[in-house]
## 1
Amino acid sequence: MVKICCIGAGYVGGPTMAVIALKCPEIEVAVVDISVPRINAWNSDQLPIFEPGLDEVVKQCRGKNLFFSTDVEKHVSEADIVFVSVNTPTKTCGLGAGKAADLTYWESAARMIADVSKSSKIVVEKSTVPVKTAEAIEKILTHNSKGISFQILSNPEFLAEGTAIINLLNPDRVLIGGRETLKGKEAIQMLEDVYAHWVPKDRIICTNLWSAELSKLAANAFLAQRISSVNAMSALCEATGADITQVSYAVGKDARIGPKFLNASVGFGGSCFQKDILNLVYICECNGLPVVANYWKQVIKLNDYQKTRFVNQVVSSMFNTVADKKITVLGFAFKKDTGDTRESPAIDVCKGLLGDKAQLSIYDPQVSEDQIKRDLSMSKFDWDHPAHLQPPSPIAIEKVRVVRDAYEATKDAHALCILTEWEEFRTLDYKRIYENMQKPAFVFDGRNIVNVKRLRKIGFIVYSIGKPLDAWHHGKPE
Ligand code: NAD
Ligand code: UDX
């Protein structure tokens, strides 16, 4: 029986291994983590992450061929294939701070693998890492191996949160990179055999190590670049009277461009895009390619601009002051169908509004009060470094109320900002909300989910990303 162990029971390790266990009943899969609460949650009815369809998959396999454990060393030493899916955040200090990937967690996992292994293993990079990381890992493993042989593979993960199970069950492709030696090819074949249980052969791409590592960074950069491109156009739409939804539709109809990932928004968030592009920028700089580095840096700059532009729009529309005005924030997660808030645009927007002394009333169907307050009191890039977690600052606590219902959140508010595209925000009773708000009542839709015409008819002053502005925003009376 082949044994798989995955180090890191997070958003990637948990769902990915659960699907492997589901599709390969004859393989034993152990997911291990140093975080005791995380493993306890994986072993309970309240999984540590909210992901549609995940509960069912875990329930089917847990205790049969899927195990969650903190006994990292035992499971690593017994495994034939070790996936490493630990966090690879942005460095916060030292060389490359604010850009380079912090491989501290990865390196400590690699050293531990070398330490506890008594038999040969395939070590799979599942985390997103800088190109050439496999070379460094190989060095750590072989120099500490006591004669045991390791094959390193790169098998980056392309799932998106909120649709992880669908993506894993039916991936566009599975990418496996390895050494072009006989042993390397055997290792690739062994991992290919695992995925071949449910992924059609023509969707399994095998490459060299560096192509696999770089393809992951490239794919995320291309996706984020589409969003920054459409967001750049959204600013021009507002200035000219064009409508970004119509522009996106017309542009996306070109078969060479395609319709997906062209939704204008308050900015992209999530744990991957910014981190991976900064990492790419750093690699370009280190390789003497400043022009290429600057090209990709613009994707991040535009995203920051879009968030700032949104905050400025709120403040300037409301007579240039939001001091002590109640502003409702609907949605705090970085996208719908997840409770994940890592790099959520809501964090920067809320911080911007708090900077202008607003009172915030926040509602998100999946994010806890604790998480929101922690996010609002953390410095940039600290979220992925557990050691830096600090208690919320008194300012954030004082000016922020987190409520469990959209109607309560909007009561007596001057404005509401929609920052996550949760389905329930499309169907709220906006007439009822309007009646309970201060007048003039503003809606700032950062996700283009409300019917602008209908809301204006109710009486709201509406700003929607990339949509023609109303008379109010043109400086004319209604
Ligand atoms: P995560 O923070 O949710 O999970 C990482 C886990 O690794 C944590 O639970 C942490 O406790 C554990 N860990 C860290 N060091 C460890 C060690 N030495 N031993 C055992 N456990 C250890 O992160 P994630 O979102 O699952 O991302 C993991 C990697 O996958 C990152 O490199 C990320 O860029 C990449 N990735 C993420 C996504 C996504 O959607 N979140 C998608 C594709 C790729
Ligand atoms: C992304 C990649 O899609 C995935 O392949 C990779 O493995 C991890 O990073 P994720 O961050 O989970 O996945 O979600 P994604 O759907 O890509 O959304 C990222 C951000 O972009 C969200 O904030 C989302 O709201 C925003 N977005 C997405 C837009 O603003 N407009 C769009 O058209 C699409």
## 2
Amino acid sequence: MKDSNPSIKDSNTAKIDDLAQNTENGQGEFLTTNHGLRINDDQNSLKAGERGATLLEDFQLREKITHFDHERIPERIVHARGSGAHGYFELHESMTPYTKAKFLQTPGTQTPVFVRFSTVAGSRGSTDLARDVRGFSVKFYTEEGNYDLVGNNVPVFFIQDAMKFPDLIHAVKPEPHHEMPQAGSAHDTFWDFVSLMPESMHMIMWAMSDRALPRSLRMMEGFGVHTFRLVNENNESVFVKFHWKPVLGVHAVSWDEAQKISGKDSDFHRRDLWEAIDSGNFPEWNFGVQIVPESDEHKFEFDLLDPTKLIPEELVPVQIIGKMVLNRNPDNFFAETEQVAFHPGHIVSGIDFSNDPLLQGRLFSYTDTQLSRLGSPNFHEIPINRPIAPVHNNQRDGHMRQTINTGQSSYHPNKVGNGCPFQAKASEGGFVAYNKRIDARKIRARSPSFFDHFSQATLFFNSQSEVEKNHIVAALQFELGKLETEAIRLRIVYMLTQVDESLAARVAKGLGIAVPPAPELPLNQSIPADGDPEKFQPTPMVSSIKMSKALSMAGTVKDNIKTRQIAILATDGVDKVSLLTMKQVLEDAGAQTKIIAPHLGFITPNNGNPIKVDQSFLTAASVLFDAVYVPDGQQSSAALAQEQDAIHFINEAYKHCKAIAADGAGVKLIDATAAGVKIHSAGKADKSSLALGVVLNGEATEFVSAIAQHRFWEREKSGKVPA
Ligand code: HDE
């Protein structure tokens, strides 16, 4: 039997081997009750006579239905919708000068990981393509215990203090009276909250950018967000920010596309991740760190502890220290992806926290939420959560306890049990919290160093390409356009003036309103009852860094077409050589192709044996592909030109700025579309078509280069085609 879940040979499989102890497979086995009794009839309940009432005695029925009745657990309060995968992290650069964490010492060390990607606001069954931040959680199963890096695909956050988290989430989740909208922020309560909390403005810029619409979970960055600490053997500490950089680059889809994908395949990202791993195209990320010496803590124009700020890479470069590879799909979604429990407080010796007040609040929240979600303090015993490092302590009992702790003592100190389990000295790996000196008064307050709310929002906006800026404007127009309360729109547009005047003006124009003057209310409404509103207003600041390349997706990796999905439109009479030659070139370059025809089964080419169709127009859609090719073939092209679905396919691919190629008579199909009219009006000379990502009768390699560009956003300038 084919192993449907292969691991690559050189990866550390310690966690997979550990999980194997709990796997079950009924192949070749008898059906039994949960208590091991073989079942003779799983079709009928036990009755008093064939037409009689069911008997209470029917333990088989009762067991089966009772289990079913209890199958659901609460979904995560945030990040409910997620997809997971196994893999490993390999260290390339020793981090010994900075940290004593064992998995970061010796280059070549591999550590098993389980990763879960998620959207934030939607429910468990919501669409993958919501405009939303994505969670990026990594559980490292190190030999010293589990280390969880629970990050996002955006490097900053909406709020500065954990106290505001429930408010933020209440505001963004579906509104409480009618539970709408699902998985979206385009509604009054979210923007009402944002309009009163200027600290959210930097994150809003990211959330309204194309970062919130990833093409693939494999094509997004990850960030630890908070500043953490690394601590070395000499108890010296540095600050650190963590980065994941995808080897395939950072790519997005357009908003129109995202909305359509949500209808055509709401599991688009989950399926993409699954299929990539299943086909051996293992997703990879480089792991990077920004290190800041403790002595530089106050050297920046922002506070390192403020989670609404990033450290521009121009100030502190990202050093790549290793790589993560995801090489195995879970065997069981519930057991692994749903039951995995992340916690920023799961750290190992050599990694520690900063005083970031958002991080500090998270340290309470994550265990607490698992208690209600997974239902027991023994959630650490669930196979996906248990460490590969041994666990010995005096914690006992509780719902669903699995471990059978033997021996007489369950307390420390003891003599009855020979003092075991022992405490570990620091030299033996015992965790010692970094002994930072704290000399402070107890105070409920926010540091004035946290009061610059706009300078990095402006930095982000200024760092975007023209197209990216256009998309931010359109996103804001969409989101604010959905609001019912005009006053919220006005407050947000005013807030945008603090980021960039032209941005505010453009958004206002789309909303049909004038940019409002400064409101009478103080901008920041997040003020303690006895606070002087004046003292809580944003500090005007200008970032000394004007542009940061790393913040734009425009310059990302565009040198390959690995795992890109290419549609080949064809029907009877297609030229087989033309079709197969292009298919081969694309697949040799690492792309995946699908032949799409008006019907499933086979099509008959004008030269050779029938060709198997992969999908019909009924189940395929251009939004599920990165590019489209129309091969030569007079009869095929003429027939497709009569198919509205084929015409729509090409128009939509054009509208979404994807690479399009056609050869021979295939060009006639392009000509029959609105996209063809646009291409003509742009001047049909091969060169200008190429600049638009359209390769007509060109070289296959030109099509490959065009697909690698991901999108030809330039096309948006000449107006949309109807699709
Ligand atoms: Fe979370 N967050 N969060 N969060 N978070 C949860 O824990 C919370 C924050 C993040 O794939 C919950 O197990 C508080 C920042 C991810 O299973 C919960 C605060 C960042 C995931 C929780 C934050 C994150 C969660 C819900 C502010 C980026 C999904 C289910 C103080 C660095 C993990 C769960 C997974 C999940 C609380 C802020 C990322 C309720 C209180 C900032 C990726 O504990």
